[in-house]
Amino acid sequence: MFEEFVLAASTGDLSAEPRAREAADAVEFRMDLAADPLDQLAAYDGALPLVVTNRAEWEGGEAADLGRYDALAEAIAHDAVVAVDVELAALRGNAPTGERSHATALRESAREEGVSVIASVHDFESTPEVGTLSDLLADAASEGDVGKLATTANAREDALAMLRATHEATAAGHRVATMCMGEPGRHTRAVAPVYGSRIGYAPVDAADATAPGQYPLATLRGLVDGLLETDAEADG
Ligand SMILES: O=C1C[C@@](O)(C(=O)O)C[C@@H](O)[C@@H]1O
């Protein structure tokens, strides 16, 4: 998984999956935004593989307590689930509620199930300088099968910093997924894959964005495919 770019359609409602099929490679099931997520998973018979995310409140999500780990442990046992998102801060023991043992146990179980681990970092306020981004990407990539970094761009320079950090991390052999949130960095969602980013996110329904600045799903598919195609031609 994630040998190549994967476009994940984000939703808290798995019944939306048929509408994502044409443009997406996977569904990101935001369990923290879902009603009865485990029931939805048990009933899922869609075509797209699932990435499960149960984002903690302290990382911008809606999962309020450690019960999110039990739900994730149950989720990864489903055949359709191919990857699980775990916050880097939890894996490193830096979460406000000290969740290291929960997070590492979940990672163990995921590995046993053959489920990939996305170690993720989010900054909803700003984008640190390139050196910090590079360190975060190296840390995240060492804790997961993919290291994901989403920061908020307040200016175009922030987008440039993210693209540079993506390029350098990829050149150093790290498997990463990157994007900037917010309008000034929106284009990174289309361009970062050219520099090696392996995952993109877009809402199944444009009105239900799961982060600021996301493109509609079909738009992001078109942009990324167009750029990756041009890039492959230039390389060849
Ligand atoms: O981590 C990410 C990336 C994201 O925050 C974005 O900016 O598109 C959207 C989230 O649903 C996902 O879990």
UniProtKB/TrEMBL annotation:
Domain of life: Archaea
Keyword Lyase: yes
Active site per the UniProt annotation: H122, K148
Metabolic or biological pathway: Metabolic intermediate biosynthesis; chorismate biosynthesis; chorismate from D-erythrose 4-phosphate and phosphoenolpyruvate: step 3/7
One GO term of the biological process aspect: 3,4-dihydroxybenzoate biosynthetic process
Keyword Ligase in annotation: no
Enzyme class: lyase
GO molecular function: 3-dehydroquinate dehydratase activity
Binding residues annotated for 3-dehydroquinate, in chain numbering: E28, F29, R30, R55, R189, T210, Q214
Entry keyword set: Amino-acid biosynthesis, Aromatic amino acid biosynthesis, Lyase, Schiff base
Reactions catalysed: 3-dehydroquinate = 3-dehydroshikimate + H2O
Enzyme Commission number: 4.2.1.10
Biological role: Involved in the third step of the chorismate pathway, which leads to the biosynthesis of aromatic amino acids. Catalyzes the cis-dehydration of 3-dehydroquinate (DHQ) and introduces the first double bond of the aromatic ring to yield 3-dehydroshikimate.
Record-stated family: Belongs to the type-I 3-dehydroquinase family.
Assembly description: Homodimer.
Protein name: 3-dehydroquinate dehydratase
Organism: Halorubrum glutamatedens
Higher taxonomy: Archaea, Methanobacteriati, Methanobacteriota, Stenosarchaea group, Halobacteria
